[in-house]
Input
Amino acid sequence: MKILGEIGINHNGDIKIAKKLIDICAELKIEAVKFQKRDIYKVYDKEMLSGSRKSPWGETQEDQKKGLEFGQKEYEEINNYCKSKNIKWFASAWDINSLKFLDQFDCEYNKIASAMITSNKFLEEVSKRQKYTFISTGMSDMKIIENAVNIFNKNNCKFELMYCVSVYPCKPELIDLNCIKTLRENFNCDVGYSGHENGIAISLAAVGMGITLPLSCDIRLMSKSSKISFRFAAIGLTPEYGSSHLLAQIVGYGKAMEYMLSGRFIDSIEALDSGLVNHVFEDDELIDESIKIANEIAQNPEWQLSQIKKMMRDHLFVDDFDRVITTENKIFRQSQDTEAHKEFLLAFRENRKPNFHND
Output
């Protein structure tokens, strides 16, 4: 799970304010801070820039936009300051000139702003850099998102969609965190949340969804550098979506209580030792290994898999062993009459692997 600090242009063109915001994020152990970078003469036309807008920097839109932009000197200072604070930084470029400007700093992440998701040329440029990219989806429909996903997949660039609503500030009733699940199911990728609302309640709820949903999974995998935290108490909330039950079921009451009460970060080694995850893989191997395990499971017959999953879950808290035996015997007899079992017997006699899916 990644928690990012959105600085954007909230520094108001003042490097001192930027450093104060970095300090806060570093103290909170946030993974990275994000800025915005744009060439205002590429992003805005002359008519817009000449418009009237009073600000501390002047009387026009151009004065205000220029006043909010950092240049070479400021970004070099940001780069060095973040290194001294041991926190990552990156920026969302709003044009190709700004993207090329940011290349010199070799940041770990890239970001596609919602306003840029419709520019195929820009998406191609970012994805060709093959850096992990956060793609905001505000104002986008499924076709627009699918197009961006296809471009990033084509260029083998890892990405994460960011559910967001492009209203500033956004009213809570306009936000539906279930869209995170919808995007994940439709595009089979990681999905995060980029909040534009006042306060942090909804962002915290999104964090809760991120850590509790995997507890319902049959098998959990983790990359070596990842960390997990059940930070409900640490952020002033309580467990939800059944996490208090599921966590204790997975790691035991005592360990679950420790994780919940402390909210501390759990590295991949401890997560594996405690049974919180089944396997830990190198970061660049996680996807391939996940697919390998999924394919291994998928080779088995569907009905048998579904019955095994149901029995494992149903019997977890059943104290009546005779009831368990009775249920298993009933399902076992049914399985003997299935085409899958017949295929296994035939494959055994023919000295070959069974083909349960007619592949």
Remarks:
- The longest helix spans residues 321-336.
- Residues 219 and 294 are 10 Å apart (CA to CA).
